[in-house]
Design goal:
Strand content: 25-35%
Distance between the termini: 46 Å
Structural class: alpha/beta
Number of helices: 10
CATH topology of the largest domain: Dihydrodipicolinate Reductase, domain 2
Largest sheet: 9 strands, mixed
Strand order of the largest sheet: 16-15-14-13-7-12-11-8-17
CATH class of the largest domain: Alpha Beta
Shape: globular
Bound molecules: nicotinamide-adenine-dinucleotide
Radius of gyration: 21 Å
Helix content: 25-40%
Length: 379
């Protein structure tokens, strides 16, 4: 016997689709779970568009006002898949209404908003999670297991990149549908909150807290037409950001993100170097984890590429047979599965709002360091 978990989805864009796919697939591949997502309602402002989405993906009903969705008695969990400037208001309303919340990243526009959200969910006692999905790519989860086993020894370095090239055009407008990421009022920041937030969340998860940062940002195209006003307006987001940091464990961090690296579409790479071994991962080859183990016999010692597809590997016993890989969308299926599991065990589904606030604090410190041109402590 399974119990339904009625989902109310807000937003039908990139993440609305990725999460819905997760809800639809999870019961087939994780049949042991007791709760089953039911696509109860989808919400967006444009009635025609949201109806088309609901019809295509199988939602039972639609709403055009998120407040009406949050107020519905037949919704158990609300999924926030809208631009960053809406996360806080929706999350506070959900907490007030006693709904579970699955919120997209970054948790908020800034630390102050994120703190308010944490306090609201903690006071209301509602279950919450933030979709930092890269934690649930099996190769990244395997990296976490290897690091936690102590195999790397003392950690010296952590480095990560997230490189894209889609905004290298000065006639690209900012704001409104699809281009809200270029509008600081909707996004809060540019690559720092959009891309580096992923790198920071994974880094904190794998290597512990960041204590202080020294950053530089650049906005290469200073003015863009705003889609909503039709006027050329100042661009307030960071197009590129690089920062150095210290981790609490004494290791050094180096992070870079940009939307101006011609040729790169979504190159998220990370590497961690320990005294005894190193690991490296690349989103473009997401089912592989590379490892160098200094304890290997000298003649054959070298970087090895682990094809993370075996039944022993994290999540992989749920899918095909050894040797057959899975992809990006499965990280969201895994997140849904872990969320449903957390409802059974009563344990939090990490990253929680509180976990995601740590990443937000680093993002804020990075932006402040770049603006002030000085080292900034993460508080
Ligand atoms: N976890 C990840 O890897 C990942 C990837 C992409 C985006 N995101 C995050 O997901 C969120 C959404 O990003 P996206 O790429 O899906 O954006 P998107 O532009 O594809 O979709 C945004 C959706 O929000 C809807 N929307 C906007 N204002 C609304 C309102 N007032 N009421 C109801 N609906 C409204 C739009 O109609 C659209 O369907 C952002 O916070 C973003 O940072 C996370």
């Amino acid at each position: 016997m399974t119990t339904p978990l009625n989902i109310g989805m807000i937003g039908y864009g990139f993440m609305g689709r990725a999460h819905t796919n997760g809800y639809k697939r999870v019961g087939d591949f994780f049949p042991e779970l007791e709760r089953r997502p039911v696509l109860k309602a989808a919400c967006a402002r444009n009635k025609e568009n949201i109806q088309a989405f609901a019809d295509q993906w199988g939602y039972e009903s639609i709403e055009t006002d998120w407040k009406a969705l949050v107020a519905r008695d037949d919704i158990d969990a609300v999924d926030i898949c809208v631009p960053n400037n809406l996360h806080k208001e929706i999350a506070l309303a959900c907490a007030e209404a006693g709904k579970m919340i699955l919120c997209e990243k970054p948790i908020a526009m800034n630390t102050a908003e994120g703190e308010e959200m944490c306090q609201a969910v903690e006071k209301a006692g509602v279950v919450n999670t933030v979709w930092y999905n890269y934690r649930r790519v099996p190769a990244v989860t395997l990296a976490k297991q290897i690091i936690d086993s102590g195999k790397l020894g003392r950690i010296f370095h952590y480095r990560a990149n997230f490189l894209q090239d889609w905004t290298i055009a000065d006639d690209l407008p900012q704001g409104g549908e699809a281009l809200w990421r270029l509008d600081v009022d909707a996004a809060g920041s540019g690559v720092t909150g959009d891309l580096l937030a992923h790198c920071i969340d994974t880094a904190i998860w794998l290597n512990g807290s960041v204590t202080d940062v020294s950053a530089m940002t650049e906005t290469f195209i200073k003015e863009r037409v705003h889609q909503e006003t039709g006027q050329k307006q100042k661009v307030g987001i960071d197009d590129a950001c690089a920062f150095l940091c210290h981790f609490e464990n004494g290791s050094l961090g180096l992070f870079e993100s940009t939307r101006y690296a011609r040729g790169h579409k979504a190159l998220y790479t990370l590497e961690i170097n320990g005294e005894n071994a190193s690991l490296r991962w690349d989103l473009h080859d997401l089912h592989r984890l590379e490892m160098f183990d200094h304890a290997d016999e000298g003649l054959t010692r070298g970087w090895k590429s682990i094809h993370v597809t075996d039944g022993d590997h994290p999540y992989m016993d749920k899918w095909w047979v050894p040797g057959l890989q899975i992809g990006y969308e499965h990280s969201f299926v895994h997140h849904v599965a872990d969320f449903l599991k957390s409802l059974e065990t009563g344990e939090p589904c990490h990253p929680t709002f509180r976990d995601a606030l740590e990443t937000q604090k680093v993002c804020d410190a990075v932006l402040s360091s770049a603006a002030e041109r000085k080292w900034e402590t993460v508080v």
